[in-house]
Amino acid sequence: MKYELGDHSFVRCPEHHLLADIEFKTKGYFGGTYNAIGGVIKNEKSGETLYEISGMWSGEMTLKNVMTGHKEVLFNAANTKHTPPIVRPLEEQQDRESQKLWYKTVLAINERNHDAATDEKTKVEDMQREEAAKRVEEGIEWHPRLFRMVRGGPGGSEEGEEDLDWILNAEIDGPTPEIKSKQILAVAPILQGQPPSQDSNLPPTQDRPPQPSSSAHGNLIDFGQSDVAAPKPTQQPTVQQPLRQQPPSGAQGLQHSLEPVIGHPIVRHDTETDEVDEFVDARS
């Protein structure tokens, strides 16, 4: 059995209004092939499709000019020398780097020790849950160190990149390759022997902005401003016998309650203030 991950990848060039929509396809149950790729390059401004991409990401990929029909090899992975990733030694990595954080879990998986792998995975996840609960308790909001939200929207400095959601929290815009290299190395330790530029062993935190206190006139609906779950109601809605009044007349009638004709008014008790809101069937 072989597992595949299939999804779309988008690459945009806002300056020229170009969009590359690349789909990593999965093999069908009755047909198809593994490692298939397909996609288009289009002009977002006009909607015109300029090129079509097809082939295999592990082999030959073809680029077709839609207007002329001409095809050419875009990339051939089979003839390309594999370049293994270069990482710093484990002893130089910080505790929150993925390879070191999940080292014991991966080691157990490679040894086919599923019990040990589950235990090590649980330790990491429990630690993360405890830290998240502590941040909620202390009123601290967590933010990534290396990434930030995209400043998109009309007129934004990164308009057209809203689909990215998160972007590297650094400016890599040096005029020369040497300056760009220094900017990249300043983000986080990459090379062997490179000292860390900041302590990232603990999750970064930031004080949460003050939330409006709840009151009798506050908002009774939770819009997700707080990580703390809303208290569960302790009282059930009750029914109260209506009080019959004479129908009001004149302009001052707007200041009086309407007389219910059928049914009973619904009374809601506020669990915090113990105030009562009455809802009446206004049908006539």
Overview of the molecule:
The chain is an alpha+beta fold. It is built from 4 helices and 13 strands. Strand 1 (7-13) and strand 2 (18-24) form a beta hairpin. The model is unreliable at 210-267 and 277-284 (pLDDT under 50).
Shape: globular
- Which oligomerization state do the chains in this entry correspond to? single chain
Percent helix range:
10-25%
Largest sheet: 6 strands, antiparallel
Distance N terminus to C terminus? Answer: 68 Å
Secondary-structure element order, as H and E?
EEEEEEHHHEEEHEEEE
Q: Output the number of helix runs.
A: 4
- Rg value: 30 Å
Low-confidence stretches: 210-267, 277-284
Average pLDDT rating: 76
- Structural class of the secondary structure composition? alpha+beta
Number of beta strands: 13
Strand order of the largest sheet: 1-2-3-4-5-6
Fraction in beta strands = 15-25%
Relevant terms:
4 helices; six-stranded antiparallel beta sheet; three-stranded antiparallel beta sheet; disordered C terminus; alpha+beta
